[in-house]
């Protein structure tokens, strides 16, 4: 980068001014940079030539000898002036200075006579327009009003307020307006103070509330609010958005006027004046808006840069203000026009110049302007160019190979080819902006490149640069060519059997298909050569039912996508309806459509069924737990019936009671001690008998492989003779001797026969 001394920049720029009629005017302009520097002036964009009335001083400032708002030829010295400076690096333009003539109109509001009772409030107003803003002073009885009196308040907009009126306040009032253009006096108005102070109650009332104001930062805002009432109301201020007004720069004038000094943008808002009756919630309000504007100023200035030929130069210019400023770019003092290689982004905050060449070397300016003012900043682009660089590659050609491939070829440059270390191919979709460009490097001995992975039916632009260790050549000529169109890819196909004569073909749309106009569907019996179809289907269709089929044969279904370039490859599926027919014969016919509809509404039934099943499982577990003892008794009774002689029914209950008791105690012992049933105890309770031995032999023979199965002797016990006896867990008595195999246990509980 070059130092600041080599650049062209403004030290002093012309500023806005108000000129006095027939008085001289000087507009200042001071520039620094490498000489020679030429300075010229423009008014409203037109060059100003030296004349007797306006000419340039030696320091570059413009001198207007006698400023005139309107000249004899109808022209005016009012307008927007700017200063232009130029050297061999480029040209810069200063900010625009708005020059206006000092004026003062007649009063359009004069003070009016007023009669106010003692202790009340009097207000006089006069209003006049002028440039600069006139200063308004008040006179009473031809003498300046004593501003030291706290009851007298003078507001900048020509308002006089008198509170707590007394008899000595009566008199004749008028205002005097003064600026550099003139001095004017208003009409007179008489104030009469009548009667004595009244004690009658009066609701608070706002005589005059704040008006809407639009000002610039650092100015002073006065929001008026004057209220009356008996007792005297208390005036307070707040913001409508609830934010605090603050204390810095805030002052109350008189009994309720709000003055804000050194305005900032944060002071903008709606201000509410409230008149409150003391000690109550009775109040009256009025509101007015304050808009504070800020001239444009730069947050980030563009910086001068140096870049080699063929690279990209980027300037950034960020400005702020209220309202937000508009940004305009100049190139050597002229409005910059965008093109394929010059782009503006981010609301014109960023200037990008792609593939720069020597013609892009210039001074670039950023102008930021809003209704409150304008500013400018400049930066220079230096294009680095080394002698002896190759000339641009020649004969660039591009040929389409396929829908996704293009071959680019070229010839070596005509000059300075010895130092070439390679080539760079620049590729971009013709419809894309320059910043979407990408590159591919190629060796110095290669003069063609196959560019792949392109999009079908798309135009692409190509150009070549030759590179050396000292820099790149200028770009070759740009060539544009389009890829071929491409047929769609194979769609995915699924076949679903609906019934014995109908199948449904479904497929899914996919971006992999590419651009397609629709689908073609074919089907045929496999033993035939001719297809039925094509059935043309729109691109948004994803299913088709094939009906009136023969259930005894196998069908081939084929689907393909097509577009303007032709038909894509097809997807083939085979389907047989024979299994559907067989299922229909073996099973009752069903209403498939109804079943399908029922399936859609069976979720609730499934949930209920799950609940019922879980409930059944729980009951089964409980039943097994409580019924396990009963099943064990059943098995024991069957065993005893098989191994003991039959006894009368009258004795069977007693026997069952003892057996049940023994069995229960033995089971409890087994559960507690983990031991098997003591067979000796059973023999002691039930002595062996011949019939028992025979039955045991019979049962054993049933398990012997030497005895035929049909000879096995198995005793059965009728259900009506089976009983389950439940008793309290009393200890078993000793077995008495006698013909009965067991004696009843004393003090047993009632038996439940089952």
Automatic annotation (TrEMBL):
Plastid recorded as keyword: no
Membrane topology value: Single-pass membrane protein
Domain Fibronectin type-III, chain residue ranges per copy: 392-486, 487-583
Keyword Disulfide bond: yes
Coiled coil: none
Record SUPFAM superfamilies: Fibronectin type III (SSF49265), Immunoglobulin (SSF48726)
Low complexity composition-biased segments: 738-754
Chain ranges passing through the membrane: 606-626
Bias kind Basic and acidic residues: ranges: 663-673
SMART domains listed in its UniProt record: FN3, IG, IGc2
Listed GO CC annotations: membrane
Biased composition (Polar residues): 643-657, 689-704
Keywords of this entry: Disulfide bond, Glycoprotein, Immunoglobulin domain, Membrane, Repeat, Signal, Transmembrane, Transmembrane helix
Gene Ontology biological-process annotations: cell-cell adhesion
Family named by the database record: Belongs to the immunoglobulin superfamily. DCC family.
Protein name: Immunoglobulin superfamily DCC subclass member 3
Native source organism of the sequence: Mohoua ochrocephala
Lineage: Eukaryota, Metazoa, Chordata, Craniata, Vertebrata
This protein's encoding gene: Igdcc3
């Amino acid at each position: 980068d070059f130092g600041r001394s080599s650049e062209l920049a403004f030290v002093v720029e012309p500023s806005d001014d108000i000129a006095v009629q027939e008085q001289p005017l000087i507009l200042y302009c001071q520039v620094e940079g490498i000489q020679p520097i030429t300075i010229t002036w423009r008014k409203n964009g037109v060059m100003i030539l030296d004349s007797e009335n306006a000419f340039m001083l030696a320091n570059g400032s413009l001198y207007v000898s006698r400023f005139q708002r309107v000249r004899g030829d109808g022209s005016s010295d009012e307008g927007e002036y700017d200063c232009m400076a130029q050297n061999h690096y480029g040209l810069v333009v200063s900010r625009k200075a708005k020059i206006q003539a000092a004026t003062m109109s007649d009063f359009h509001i004069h003070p009016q006579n007023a009669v106010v009772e003692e202790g009340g409030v009097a207000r006089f107003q006069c209003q006049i327009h002028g440039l600069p803003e006139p200063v308004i002073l008040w006179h009473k009885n031809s003498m300046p009003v004593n501003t030291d009196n706290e009851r007298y308040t003078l507001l900048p907009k020509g308002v006089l307020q008198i509170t707590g009126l007394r008899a000595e306040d009566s008199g004749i009032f008028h205002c005097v307006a003064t600026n550099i253009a003139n001095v004017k006096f208003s009409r007179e108005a008489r104030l009469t103070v009548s009667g004595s102070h009244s004690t009658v109650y009066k609701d608070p009332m706002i005589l005059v509330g704040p008006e809407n104001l639009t000002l610039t930062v650092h100015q002073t805002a006065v929001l008026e609010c004057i209220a009356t009432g008996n007792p005297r109301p208390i005036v307070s201020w707040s913001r409508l958005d609830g934010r605090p007004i603050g204390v810095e720069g805030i002052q109350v004038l008189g009994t309720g006027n709000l003055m804000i000094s050194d305005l900032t943008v944060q002071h903008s808002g709606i201000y509410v004046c409230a008149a409150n009756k003391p000690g109550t919630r009775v109040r009256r309000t009025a509101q007015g808006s304050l808009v504070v504007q800020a001239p444009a100023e730069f947050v980030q200035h563009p910086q001068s840069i140096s870049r080699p030929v063929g690279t990209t130069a980027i300037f950034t210019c960020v400005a702020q203000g209220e309202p937000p400023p508009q940004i305009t770019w100049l190139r050597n003092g002229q409005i910059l026009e965008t093109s394929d290689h010059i782009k503006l982004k981010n609301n014109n905050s960023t200037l990008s110049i792609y593939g720069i060449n020597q013609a892009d070397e210039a001074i670039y300016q950023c102008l930021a302007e809003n209704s409150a003012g304008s500013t400018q900043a400049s930066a220079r682009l230096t294009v680095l160019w080394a002698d002896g660089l190759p000339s641009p590659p020649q004969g660039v050609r591009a040929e389409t190979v396929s829908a996704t491939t293009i071959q680019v070829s070229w010839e070596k440059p005509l000059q300075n080819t010895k130092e070439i270390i390679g080539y760079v191919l620049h590729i971009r979709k013709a419809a894309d902006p320059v910043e979407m460009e990408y590159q591919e490097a190629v060796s110095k001995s290669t003069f063609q490149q196959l560019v792949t992975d392109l999009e079908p039916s798309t135009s692409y632009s190509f150009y070549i640069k030759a590179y050396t260790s000292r820099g790149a050549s200028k770009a070759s000529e740009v060539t544009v060519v389009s890829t071929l169109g491409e047929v769609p890819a194979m769609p995915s196909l699924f076949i679903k059997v609906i019934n014995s004569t109908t199948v449904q073909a479904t497929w899914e749309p996919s971006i992999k298909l590419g651009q397609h106009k629709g689908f073609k569907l074919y089907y045929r019996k496999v033993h035939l050569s001719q297809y039925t179809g094509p059935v043309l289907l729109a691109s948004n269709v994803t299913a088709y039912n094939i009906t009136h089929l023969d259930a005894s044969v196998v069908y081939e279904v084929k689907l393909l996508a097509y577009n303007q370039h032709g038909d894509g490859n097809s997807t083939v599926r085979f389907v047989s309806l024979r299994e559907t027919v067989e299922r229909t014969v073996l099973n009752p016919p069903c209403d498939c459509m109804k079943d399908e509809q029922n399936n859609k509404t069976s979720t609730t039934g499934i949930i209920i069924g799950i609940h019922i099943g879980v409930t059944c499982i729980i009951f089964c577990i409980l039943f097994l737990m409580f019924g396990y003892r009963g099943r064990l008794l059943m098995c024991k009774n069957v065993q005893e019936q098989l191994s003991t002689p039959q006894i009368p029914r009258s004795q069977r209950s007693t026997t069952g009671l003892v057996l049940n008791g023994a069995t229960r105690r033995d089971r409890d012992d087994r559960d507690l001690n983990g031991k098997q049933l003591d067979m000796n105890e059973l023999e002691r309770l039930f002595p062996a008998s011949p019939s028992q031995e025979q039955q045991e032999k019979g049962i054993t023979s049933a398990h012997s492989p030497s005895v035929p199965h049909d000879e096995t002797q198995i005793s059965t016990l009728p259900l009506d003779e089976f009983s389950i006896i439940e008793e309290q867990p009393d200890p078993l008595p000793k077995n008495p001797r006698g013909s009965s195999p067991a004696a009843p246990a004393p003090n047993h509980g009632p038996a439940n026969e089952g």
